[in-house]
Specification:
Elements (H helix, E strand, L loop, with lengths): L4 H23 L1 E3 H8 L3 H13 L3 E4 L2 E4 L5 H10 L2 H13 L6 E4 L3 H13 L5 E5 L2 H7 L5 E5 L3 E3 L4 E3 L1 H4 L7 E6 L3 E3 L3 E4 L2 H13 E7 L11 E4 L6 E5 L4 H9 L4 E4 L24
Parallel strand pairs: 4-5, 4-9, 5-6, 9-12, 12-14, 14-15
Antiparallel strand pairs: 1-3, 2-3, 7-8, 10-11, 11-13
Length: 290
């Protein structure tokens, strides 16, 4: 029996709304005119879709489009992400700071894990000539005025979702300075896509950090493995090492190591000492793998 046209139309609408919801979740935001062009429907239809998705709690409508849940309240979203995997991030940050030497210039992105690195730099102390280059407003505020640490805050447009500065005004700085280590978080990591971020504007500044650095240290907790977010900012073969926690998926860690990525598994500080221990299952050919 043939379905009524209204029922068929409703099925198409629900499929389109599902796809719209995924787009907003993946990219963080979407505009009505872009969605209308992509799906070949009118702007009025897209607005109706967004109303329904908002009623279902999938997104928040804005003028001209929609944003993912949490993005509409940027401070709350950042603070929420900061609280996730706190022990893991603190342990990863401690391992990252173990690799930093006084006198270096390092780059920190605006990720919440990088904020933990900044706090660990302060906790360790003893710096006399460390330079931190960052596009993170929170990170710059955390380190400002701390003895022995000079902070270079990049210029650019304020991206309130991450309390970061983005755009060409900032990445141009990296053509004129030398960075020993770029310590960067990511929204996702796979061997095929490398380190990825949810937005192109954030990825742009991270590419500049990576391009200027002698070493690239990825600081990612276990939830980031196997996820490919919107924009790649660092290919896997450009990563010097990945610092992650022991809950990282073993099969994905093995895949990364097989591809030549130096992966260190960092035990939780809550259940071990302050420094990483060797992972018995990891090879030890190119230095200790943790």
């Amino acid at each position: 029996m043939t379905k009524p046209a209204a029922a068929v139309g409703e099925e198409f609408a629900r499929e389109r709304q599902y796809k719209i919801g995924r787009i907003v979740e993946e990219h963080g935001r979407a505009r009505v005119n872009e969605l209308a062009s992509q799906f070949g429907v009118s702007a009025v239809t897209i607005r109706k879709d967004l109303v329904r998705l908002e009623q279902e709690g999938r997104l928040v409508r804005t003028h001209g489009g929609a944003v993912a849940i949490g993005v509409a309240r940027p401070e709350g979203a950042f603070e929420m992400r900061e609280r996730l995997q706190r022990d893991e991030k603190a342990s990863i940050a401690a391992a990252a700071v173990d690799l930093v030497q006084d006198g270096e210039a390092i780059a920190l992105d605006a990720s919440t894990t990088a904020l933990y690195v900044a706090r660990e730099l302060k906790s360790r102390g003893g710096w006399s000539l460390l330079t931190v280059v960052t596009n993170g407003l929170r990170i710059a505020s955390e380190l400002a005025g701390y003895p022995g640490i000079s902070v270079l805050l990049l210029g650019g447009w304020v991206r309130h979702e991450a309390f970061s500065l983005v755009g060409g005004l900032g990445d141009g700085v990296f053509r004129r300075i030398n960075i020993q280590k770029a310590i960067v978080g990511a929204a996702g990591f796979t061997i095929g896509t490398g380190l990825t971020d949810a937005t192109e504007e954030e990825a742009q500044i991270k590419r500049a950090m990576v391009g200027a650095a002698r070493e690239v240290i990825a600081v990612i907790d276990h939830t980031k493995w196997g996820r490919a977010s919107f924009a790649t900012f660092c290919r896997a073969d450009r990563i010097t090492r990945v610092l992650t926690d022991v809950a990282a998926p073993p099969e994905l860690v093995a895949e990364a190591r097989a591809a030549g990525v130096d992966v260190w598994l960092v035990p939780s500080r809550a259940s071990s000492d302050d420094h990483p221990r060797a992972d018995d299952s990891a090879p030890n050919e190119a230095g200790q793998q943790l």
